[in-house]
Amino acid sequence: MHESAYPLRGKRLVLVVDDEPINRALLGAMLEETCDVIMAENGREALALMEQNRSRLSLVLLDLKMPVLSGTELLKAVRADETLRRIPIIVLTADQDAEIESLDLGAIDFIPKPYPPAGVVLARVRRTIELSEDRSIIRATERDELTDLFSREYFYRYAEQFDRLHEETAMDAVVIDINHFRLLNERYGKAYANRVLRRVGEKLREAVQDSGGLVCRREADIFLLYCPHRDDYESVLEHSGAGLTGEQAGSARVRLRMGVYENADKTIDIERRFDRAQVAADTIRNNLTRPIAYYDAALHQAELFAEQLVEAFPDAIRERQFQVCCQPKFNVQGDAPRLVSAEALVRWEHPTLGKISPADFIPIFERNGLISELDRYVWHETAAAMRDWRENGGVTLPVSVNVSRVDMLDANLSERFLEITRAYGISPSDLLLEITESAYTSDSEYIIATVRKLRALGFRIEMDDFGTGYSSLGMISRLPIDALKLDMLFVQNAFGETRDTRMLELILDIAEYLKVPVIAEGVETKEQMTALRALGCEIIQGYYFSKPIPLPDFGAYIEEQLR
User: Fold this and answer.
1) What spatial distance separates the first Cα and last Cα of the chain, rounded to whole Å?
2) DSSP H helical segments within 166-296, as ranges?
């Protein structure tokens, strides 16, 4: 066989099936120099040899008219076997009328009887094996191994090909994922989670196959659909989640959520269309009452705004448009509230957009990977101000700075903080590091090890937004922390219409068990402060005491409070 056609060396195994000895001998003589040849004189023998050699067999040359089991019957048997059907078959026949039926049954090509010259036979054999091996390689990369859905790269290619063939067809780009899939994996094991993924993939494929839609598992628990526009996504979601509730996991309920970009703009690239569907899906993250969200004009404007902020970020850092403020924290247990620390907060004064709320730009920078650079900016600004307060006013005060989940994955995080303390002449105990509860649950063992290292160096750790993550009590009991910081929603809810402080009491009990203080932020009234103090909360932060104060003015505020 021609050497350049085969990047892999070695003879291919070919099975010749014919009831006539002379035909088997003729084909064997043509192939023996380039192939390993095995023979069968009827379909039953051939099927047994195919089963025995299914992993190595490269081609079958099959006569149609044979005793015991005909070639047509063999084609039908092979077609029903998922593994054997991938072995290419060339039919040997003098009956041209049998060609259509053979093609329908899975035959790849024909060699007429009487046989053409050996060069023609070898060329057809070689080409058929080449195409089959290429197809096998493509299929191995084309499909997701777990679900047998398209892989992301091939999915995008096929979607683009679909567009070229159906230019006038309105298409929808859809993202589906499983709410809290990581917890499902942790609670019930990888095997159960994989069954859920396979089931969801199978149901999604069933839901869109009639319309010619394409399905892909992009990554982890995220699936993509690309299909002609439809108005029944509620039924698609219901069908895809059917049978998942409680399946082999007690009362566990598997919830799906969906983001839909209807009538997708075909002038933008295919990946961007699914980015828009993902934007819609993200708006209902953790929303158990609204499983489907649609990309609309409002989301489009929000996306354009986000792009504008991302593009403006480098100039904002260079021109120091970000302003760092401090909001004081007071210990309220005692005769009078005492200033004990502060939190560094960042504001953005954009030259044309004006004041931009952190609630607007922080989530955008977290999604786009810019949050670490902004955090480092805040750390340096805060440390420089702390040095100035000491040198110019003779006062010191610990200040907490936010450490994002992305920051916690930095292998050099401890060294970065040590460099800051050395550069500005402050102590590690002067920097309080606020780490969100959700950061601990994202990669708990690694994060805990990092936090222990930071504490060993003298830094103190505050768990921020406590109560909004998914920590188990077992995890909380071994977390290396120095304070729990309540999310402000707990304060607002406790003193809202329901006037229910039971959740606050529970968290304070947890803190007492851990022997760490609780910091309540978002406290706005004397009534809230008094009630929290009575419940045993030690430290209060909020507008009741002070709004955030720019760093250059905060030194004077510290001096005034200490007097």
Assistant:
1) 95
2) 181-188, 190-208, 233-241, 270-282
pLDDT digits (tens, 9 = 90+) for 392-430: 888 899 999 999 988 988 999 999 999 999 999 999 999
Give the distance from CA 240 to its chain's centroid: 19
Residue 253, C-beta contacts closer than 8 angstroms, at least 6 positions apart:
244, 245, 246
What mean pLDDT is predicted for residues 307-315?
95
What is the Cα Rg of the chain in Å?
34
Residue 485 exposed, middle or buried by CB count within 10 Å (0-12, 13-18, 19+): buried
d(CA 563, CA 552): 19
For residue 176, report the phi and psi dihedrals to the nearest 5 degrees.
-125, 135
Residue spans of the domains in the chain: they are 3-141, 152-295, 304-546
For residue 435, CA distances in Å to 22, 57, 194, 378 come to 81, 58, 32, 15
Domain 152-295 CATH class label: alpha beta
| pLDDT tens, position by position, 497-531 | 666 778 788 888 888 888 899 999 999 999 999 98
According to the CATH classification, is domain 3-141 in 3.30.200.20? no
Residue 8 — very low, low, confident or very high, per pLDDT cuts 50/70/90? very low
Beta carbons within 8 Å of 451's beta carbon, 6+ residues apart? 435, 461, 479, 480, 481
Alpha helices, DSSP H, located in 209-339: 233-241, 270-282, 297-318
Please name the CATH architecture into which domain 304-546 falls.
Alpha-Beta Barrel (3.20)
Residue-wise pLDDT tens digits, 108-165 = 888 888 888 988 889 989 888 888 877 777 666 788 889 989 988 889 998 998 998 8
CA 333 → CA 337, 459, 531, 534, distances in Å? 7, 24, 12, 9
Helices 297-318 and 371-388 pack at an angle, to 10 degrees, of 40
| pLDDT tens digits, 478-498 | 778 899 888 777 777 777 666
Q: One fold for both 3-141 and 304-546? A: no
Q: What is the DSSP letter of 220?
A: T
Query: Tell me, what DSSP letter sits at residue 393?
Result: I
Burial class (CB in 10 A: 0-12, 13-18, 19+), 88: buried
